[in-house]
Design brief:
- This protein is α/β, with parallel strands linked by helices.
- The chain folds into 2 domains: 207 residues, Spore Coat Polysaccharide Biosynthesis Protein SpsA, Chain A; 156 residues, 60s Ribosomal Protein L30, Chain: A.
- It is 31% helix and 29% strand.
- The protein has 12 helices and 17 strands.
- The strands form 4 sheets. Strands 3, 4, 5, 6, 9, 10, 11 and 17 form an 8-stranded mixed beta sheet that branches.
- A hairpin with a 2-residue loop joins strand 1 and strand 2.
- The radius of gyration is 28 Å and the shape is elongated.
Amino acid sequence: MGGIDKRLAPLGGRPLLIRTLEAIAGPPVVAQVVLVMDSGPALEAIRAQLPAKVAAVVAGGPHRGASVEAGFRALEAVHGGTIDEDRVVLIHDGARPLVSAQLIEVVATGAAEHGAAIPLVAVADTVRRVRDGVVGDIVDRTDLMAAQTPQAARAGLLKRAFRAFPSSGRDRFTDEAALLMACTIRVHPVPGDPVNLKVTLPDDLARVDAVLASRAPVRVGHGVDTHPFGPGEGLRLGGIEIPGAPRLHGHSDGDVALHAIADALLGAAALGDLGRLFPADHRTPRGADSSTLVEVVIGRLAEAGWDVDGVDLTITGVRPHLGPHLDAIQARIAALLGIPTWAVGVKASTGNLEGGPGAGRSMAASATVTVRSRSGLSAGDHSTERADREAVAS
């Protein structure tokens, strides 16, 4: 991963491992989660973001098998020293943040009914043998399947496998299914999910990020604002100054374009409106740059987990002539919102010469915005079954 700890790699503004933990802990069917992770800077960087269901964090071992047992023993400690033998335990890779609630339920149900379960997906590509740099025969992939996580088993079967193979003899098993099958325990196959990608290479991050973006809920907001012209010059519009044009009157700089955008953003995220955020008696100095107000609004959206996708702005008025300034307004708004210029539409209208804007006494603006949730989860992603499963994430 180019020297970057992939567990901390950002996905939609949050570390990959936090995304994974949120996904595995999200469904109500999962009661508690143990994170297997060594102490150090990486853990401290995410500790404050751990989901509430993370009941313990325990250091891993020299190989996967030892780490899984360490997580299992930590779960036992959480339960007072033992876990009911029929209780289902899921083991999940920390590098698979796209695991769905549906897959978790399918795997857990398979283990509850059959003792152990593993999700598998068909191998789509042609598989060939290569020996000493020479391409050989095609491998019949009829019976080939790619294994995923979470894998699951009843607690009693996992304990039996741990007893049969001490930690030092478990390094040859690359997953829990292999360990269980070595103990003659049948592992039930269940359909995996092709979207349940594992992040191994840098390009995998981009693929996962794209999936998260496609899943994220999108909201639309609309805002309008009007200000009369006042005495003096120094028009502020869309975050830029237009010299020689009359100034708009208002408590701040009267920038109708930025006010409309700010109101639209707050509305899209259900965070109120500009009047409530900055009431008339607010300490904001008279004539304040509205760019500062927009920056505060963007901060509020970020705290609530929303990113700006795009803006469509219409400015209405007969003066001044805005054509020469639209590109600069577009660039300034894009910079303020942290989005590309192609995601910002800016139009000017005379309002058919009606009302205050049409008569040249005022200017108006209307803005429509789209914002996207950083969570990547929709309201229907989580099941409502009773919580009777445990999870170990490593």
